[in-house]
Amino acid sequence: MQPAAPDPHPENGKRHLAPALSDAPIGVSTRKNGFMSQPNTQGQVQHAQPSVGSIAAHRPHTIAATISDLAPDLDADLDAYDEDAQVGHDGVELPQGRFLDRERSWLAFNERVLELAEDPQTPLLERANFLAIFASNLDEFFMVRVAGLKRRIATGVATRSASGLQPREVLELIWNRSRELMARHAACYHDDVAPGLADEGIQLVRWHELTEKEQSRLFTLFRQQIFPVLTPLAVDPAHPFPYISGLSLNLAVVVRNPVSGHQHFARVKVPPLLSRFLEASPQRYVPIEDVIAAPAHLQELFPGMEIQEHHMFRLTRNEDLEVEEDDAENLLQALEKELMRRRFGPPVRLEVEESIAPNVLSLLVRELKISEAEVYPLPGPLDLTGLFSIAKLDRPELKYPKFVAGTHRDLAEVESASAPDIFAALRERDVLLHHPYDSFSTSVQAFLEQAAADPDVLAIKQTLYRTSGDSPIVDALIDAAESGKQVLVLVEIKARFDEQANIKWARKLEEAGCHVVYGIVGLKTHCKLSLVVRQEGETLVRYSHVGTGNYHPKTARLYEDLGLLTSNAEVGADLSDLFNRLSGYSRRETFRRLLVAPRSLRDGLVSRIDKEIQHHRAGRPAYVRIKVNSMVDEAVIDSLYRASQAGVDVDVWVRGICAVRPGVAGLSENIRVRSVLGRFLEHSRVFAFGNGGEPEVWIGSADMMHRNLDRRIEALVRVQDPAHRTALSRLLETGMSDTTASWHLGADGNWTRHSVDQDGQPLRNVQEMLIDARRRRRGTATP
User: Fold this and answer.
1) pTM value?
2) Which terminus of the chain has fewer Cβ atoms in its 10 Å neighbourhood, N or C?
3) Which of 217-231, 326-340, 753-767 has the lowest mean pLDDT?
């Protein structure tokens, strides 16, 4: 995120969300802790370890990479909570209405993304990229959160949210607020970004703006490459209304039979595998739907008919998965079947061009069985996720300055062409990695590649939640197995929108001789762990990696994440025990340097927050500093409220959803909440405590959400090296500082952007500071 100029919007950049639809006081309390009950009635942990049979090849969802790489975590569940009153540190009940609404908070997160696109200080192609991210995020929000809410309302199982809103109120809030944001999004494109790109020679034009020569060239392209894959579908008594797949662009065409005089409706689907924007001439791009809808081209599709009108529309469907996991042996088959059903989920949003004819819109609403509240008229072009391709154009002067991560200095004091000896470095010291500022390929990837090639390595154990299609991590594991090493890979095949890719890699790993397991039934395995067992003389040494991000080399260049590489015996023993739990029947619940969900993580954090109250009362140093993607869990939030009431300073750095209501007198006046968004996606999770003068810092995979703490295997590791604890504490302090550019959350749930100081000078950008620090180490910093 570039330092921003003074916000051109009024009220110092405040963006007011729609007020809560119900102001009635609501008694709210936390959910009870505890391990998610398993279907095994014998009290044993049940595992999903099916024999991978023939897995049919499905075409991946066309936006899977976009959504999984760029969107915040979404949970399809509408999480319930207990009605029992909770008490503060002094025994008084905590007040009602103390939680902000999570759906409203998510929309506020996406508004912050939109503000980066609206910011004239953001490089122009990066603004286009943020417009695409906003659109992609909103797609997934409707596919998962809105769809889940509608499903629960329809089945009568939806409950009042922790914020006190009834399900229907939440749905109406979403409709109203998303409509406002989508209008702003379209205006930003039409009024700012597209004209700005045109000034730089990148023109996004419509068909009528093309020259005759450009139209002639595209007609040839249409006949040769587009027309053969188009399938016009008529609607008449012999042809029912066609199925409209989720997120597909569609052309509604009204034609007239000149012989009978009858009008007919037809639908033409825009092929999703073709380029979204076609280059009519150098640096001039036209949406593919405009090419299909050109009069001469429609005449090719409907020869002998009169083309009377045409309109674009786009449908969003429920695409969340519902897989019964009771029978572990059939998990892959059940998932495969559900992936086929996903494309037939009920509709949740209809986007149409605002120029659409009323009669055509009425037909779509009726045939798609969607309510008028779910119709979103917008200026064309629809589906601005297509701007991802424009943002990738080779115009470096219109993007953030290029940054190439270097090897961490503890892994290679002097960078050279030879790969660092990871094991030798870890025998000397622990290594705290901070991606993307520290190279993933020369650290974590090199760690696994070196382990695969080292004849002294006996075993590798690895979790994989998401990884890239051409993953060097998978290749290294396959090489290790083929060389005779024991390789255990825990593949989470239920990682949303990556299910197909993960099934594919599970099959490939098994064929290479890896032991592939699929975790514990009822729980997603989300922890980020690697364990390497190496023979060194007469002893076995365990080398470990515990991270906050996925083993995904591509997103490691875009995501901000932390990782600990260590040869510490306690961490190695903990990872051995945890892998045994994931692959076998271990019931271990306590660890030496790990906190593990769903057993001990929430309770471990809450007990440490409560302990800060005792330190504060005794006059010892006490504070709580947390950096997460989402802060929703009521038990954790209530513990923060108790700490604030006792006088403990609490800082929360959150990227996305936050249900904490800071700055409320008598409840949270000692709580500050900040958010940082920018060129990298803030993704690390850090938990720091004053601990009476002996600071305690943890990093790991868990966000503060019910799904992470109750329905996932998550792991935090305690950072032991004093220098590493200091570095992490300094990072948290920088992110929370009033001199750092960020968004501040108010007690009313509104976020205010702070990007300049009182003199109008840009505030520090934490990401640019970290980039410059790495450049200075290599002597390449900008003067």
Assistant:
1) 0.85
2) C
3) 326-340
- For residues 102, 108, 114 and 120, what is the CA-based torsion angle, rounded to 10 degrees? -150
Q: Give the distance from CA 348 to its chain's centroid.
A: 20
Pairing of strands 539-547, 528-536: antiparallel
Between CA 23 and CA 332 the distance in angstroms is: 46
What is the token pair recorded at 651?
């800082």
Q: How far apart are CA 414 and CA 411, in angstroms?
A: 9
Tokens 């120029």 sit on residue = 355
- What backbone phi and psi angles, to 5 degrees, belong to 407? -70, 135
What is the greatest pairwise CA distance in the chain? 93
Residue 555: φ, ψ to 5°: -70, -20
Catalytic residue among 297, 310, 435, 526: 526
Distant-in-sequence, close-in-space partners of 594: CB < 8 Å, separation ≥ 6: 546, 571, 574, 575, 578, 715, 716, 717, 718
The H-or-E segment that residue 583 falls in is helix 569-583
Q: Residue 377: pLDDT above 50?
A: yes
- Give the three-class secondary structure for 697: strand
Structure confidence by residue, pLDDT tens digits, 745-765 = 999 999 999 999 999 999 999
pLDDT band, very low/low/confident/very high, at 273 (cuts 50, 70, 90): confident
pLDDT digits (tens, 9 = 90+) for 524-535: 889 999 999 999
**b/e per residue 726-759 (b: at least 16 CB within 10 A):** eebbebbebbbeeebbbbbbebebebebbbbeee
Q: Which residues of 292-322 are buried (b: 16+ CB within 10 A; e: fewer)?
A: bbbeebbebbbeebebeebbbbbbbbbbbbe
Alpha helices in 294-413 (DSSP H): 295-301, 331-342, 358-368, 387-391
Q: What are phi and psi of 48, to 5 degrees?
A: -100, 100
Query: Across 466-538, where does the E strand assignment appear?
Result: 486-491, 515-517, 524-525, 528-536
- Polymer length of the chain: 783
Q: Is 586 helix (H, G, I), strand (E, B) or coil?
A: coil
744 is catalytic: no
Residue 656 has phi, psi (to 5 degrees) of: -115, -105
CB atoms within 10 A of CB 772: 15
